[in-house]
Amino acid sequence: MELDGREFRNVLGTFATGICVITAMSENDEPFGMTVNSFASVSLDPALVLWSLQNDSDCWPAFELAEKYAVNVLAADQQDLSALYAQKGKHTLQPDHYTVGEYGLPIIAGAVSSFECSVWARYPGGDHTILIGEVKRIDSDSSKQPLVFNAGQYRELR
Question: Which intervals hold domain Flavin reductase like (predicted)?
Answer without folding.
Answer: 12-156
